[in-house]
Amino acid sequence: MTINLKDVHVVYPGMPNKPILNIQSWVVGPQEQVFVHGPSGCRKSTLLNLLSGMLVPKNGEVSILNDRLDQMDQRQRDRFRANHIGYVFQQFNLIPYLNAVESVQLATHFGKHATSGVRQNEIEALLEKLNISSDDWHKQASTLSIGQQQRVAIARALINKPTLLIADEPTSSLDQDNRDNFMSVLMSLVAENNITLVFVSHDLSLSRYFNRVDALSDISSLDGDG
Ligand SMILES: Nc1ncnc2c1ncn2[C@@H]1O[C@H](COP(=O)(O)OP(=O)(O)O)[C@@H](O)[C@H]1O
Ligand SMILES: [Mg+2]
């Protein structure tokens, strides 16, 4: 299994008695694309932080690609994330003064294939595939349109060939046209590269792109007020 959570309990630091996530079992198979929805504040980002090892559970098993994140130390989790997981955020988190090519290049320094030079062609091919024309490759990220910035963010997330891609409301700041464009490019790249995708959003209209749709409230049950 790509993701296998068992009896996982999450609390925030300093609040040991307040259950934040309470997951009996949640399994995602290889190359599944799962849409997880729920209203703002329902702990979608917290779930993603757990999957990527940025947050460790109070107890329970977090198995990603058959490795136990909950048994790793922070260094091992950071390494694991760099090697296997791609992340696309709501705010694309591009460094404003780097251009499109450099933004993607930066990610290659952290990945398992960390080499130089040769990657340039790969980066350019990927940007091309994402409909970012060569005229725009050397413009600073901050001068690209929002839609282009979000597509550069996909390129950055995919350049290290992650097995698991995590997307945290990546379409929230896009208008309808950019949203449709972003989703179709994302879904075709995910299919083409056999990537497992966990995509969270409050926007239920996006569920039409997925064949598996889970409500966060069905993944995590909360006692009391949560
Ligand atoms: N480290 C933390 N300590 C305390 N509260 C937190 C922490 N991280 C997030 N929260 C709170 O938990 C709630 C849910 O968080 P989040 O996972 O971001 O929800 P969502 O992504 O569904 O909007 C928010 O109210 C947020 O303020
Ligand atoms: Mg969130």
TrEMBL record:
Keywords: ATP-binding, Nucleotide-binding, Transport. GO terms for molecular function: ATP binding; ATP hydrolysis activity; transmembrane transporter activity. Residues 3-222 form the ABC transporter domain. InterPro entries: AAA+_ATPase, ABC_transporter-like_ATP-bd, ABC_transpr_LolD-like, MacB-like_ATP-bd, P-loop_NTPase. SUPFAM superfamilies: P-loop containing nucleoside triphosphate hydrolases. CDD domains: ABC_MJ0796_LolCDE_FtsE. GO terms for cellular component: plasma membrane. Pfam families: ABC_tran (PF00005). This is ABC transporter ATP-binding protein. It comes from the Bacteria.
